[in-house]
Amino acid sequence: MAAKRSKETKKALSYLPHNINAEKAVLGSALISKDALFNVLSSLDENDFYLGKHQIIYRALYNLMEKKIAVDVLTVTEELINLKELDNIGGVPYLQECSDSMVALSNLEFYINIVVNQSVLRTMLTAIREIDKEYLETEIDDVEDFLSMAEGRFKESIERKKISTFKTTREVAAEVKMQIDNIKSNKKDGLLGLGSGFSKIDFYTQGFQKDQMIIVAARPSVGKTALTLNFALKVATNSNVPVAVFSLEMSAESLFMRLIAMESCVSLKKISTGNIEGIEREKVAHAIRKVGDAPIFIDDNAGLKLMDIVTKSTKLKAAHPDLGLIIIDYLGLIQTSSNAKNPDSRQEEVRKISLALKGLARDLKVPVIVVSQLSRDVEKRESKKPMLSDLRDSGSIEQDADVVMLIYREDYYGNGDKDIKTKGGKLTQIQKFELARAQKEKELGEQIPGSASFVELNIAKNRNGQTGRVPLFFYKEYGKFDSPSEEWERAMSEITKDDDE
């Protein structure tokens, strides 16, 4: 039965779509007109042509252009002789036949589009044939993997559906004016994008923009996952838009418990052990209802591949057009292929991942936050504050990212002794934090609850805005980040000034 079906499928797809006259028209135009030549070579490639002899003629045209030799029937003939292909294309008579098929420059775009569309259709049908063949002839161990592969291969087959063209500034002006008008009417709190829930972060970024790839990086256990979960919860509850979280390291249940602890301000340890009573039980119950109602979608498949993330995000966007944010935790665990013997180096693999995730943000018009680790070079320096060059595995992360946020926690490196100053006699960030905390408690007349760490979030790269450092409080016991009050920042400013003097 399978063999019969395979035979029928091959017969049905044995004819691949093409338009010989359109191919001859574009090649003939390129042979006669310099303007047409530039248009054809910039819009098409060799594989867009169905006939092998048309591919050969295109290759000759391309070679002449690279050599900066004028193109006409004579020079193309000479190039084909050098390539030992003149007889294979039908000799000079066939070149003349193509020349006679030329079209006016004003109509050339129409014929180029025909060639491209036929090429895309051929590629798509070939991809379908290969997928069907693989299904019939290969044992499918994992249906999810097969579907992901098939969807990715199909998507790749139609990527050349559109021909990239220039836009005039008049066209761009109209689009930008409309965009500005929409921003003006929809803008909230002075933001151009999606609010992070932290005013100081939004001050620098103007919110998470629709086509941005944002990197959140730190050393292990500093608070990367916690910060991105804070973003997820605040976006889902404050802006009421769906958020997708791809967790390659933690289960959905573990992430949900963290979200509950964050929302209820009850210790994660107590929640995970069930050791909660009285008012804390009420807080947790309320948090479960609130987080449960939040539009957060979690995928905790530890074996997620790059194409899985792309296809699943695309499906979610189709089901929820208002998808506001995608979070991926974390980059170091993403695989580009199921092939364990992939010859690519890790740097090359990360480059592919980085480019694909940037493309995902642009295609879906959704900000994509990617968690990344910093290299061990941070540990070797006297100053442990991270820099862009500490991004692990590839410089392409820094290059492709629109925003890079680096997390620094001084108490992570054991510099939390309140009685010890630095070598220069200056206070550490921990000491400044504690002094400012004490001053704030004195003003309030009460203790500030919870044991908080001082975190410095360095917005080290911001493609469309300014960079800067954002102070945050991190309550590790329930994974919650908070912004300091204006009074606290003033107190910190006074302490820093006195210390500098």
Q: Decide which structural class fits the backbone.
A: alpha/beta
Taken from the alpha-carbon principal axes, the silhouette is elongated
| CATH fold assignment of the largest domain | Rossmann fold
Strand content: 5-15%
Low-confidence stretches: 1-14, 416-424, 444-449
SS summary, helix count: 20
At the first level of CATH, what is the class of the largest domain? Alpha Beta
| CATH architecture label of the largest domain | 3-Layer(aba) Sandwich
Share of residues in helices:
40-55%
Distance between the termini: 87 Å
Written description of the protein model:
A hairpin with a 4-residue loop joins strand 8 and strand 9. Helices cover 53% and strands 11% of the residues. The protein is elongated, with a radius of gyration of 30 Å. The N and C termini lie far apart (87 Å). The chain has two domains: 2-161, DNAb Helicase, Chain A; 196-500, P-loop containing nucleotide triphosphate hydrolases (Rossmann fold, 3-Layer(aba) Sandwich), CATH 3.40.50. It has 501 residues and is α/β, with parallel strands linked by helices. It contains 20 helices and nine strands. It has helices at residues 2-12, 20-32, 34-43, 52-66, 73-82, 91-100, 105-137, 143-157, 169-186, 199-205, 224-239, 252-264, 268-273, 278-293, 306-319, 346-364, 377-380, 395-400, 429-444, 486-500; strands spanning 213-218, 243-247, 296-299, 325-329, 368-373, 403-409, 453-462, 468-475, 480-482.
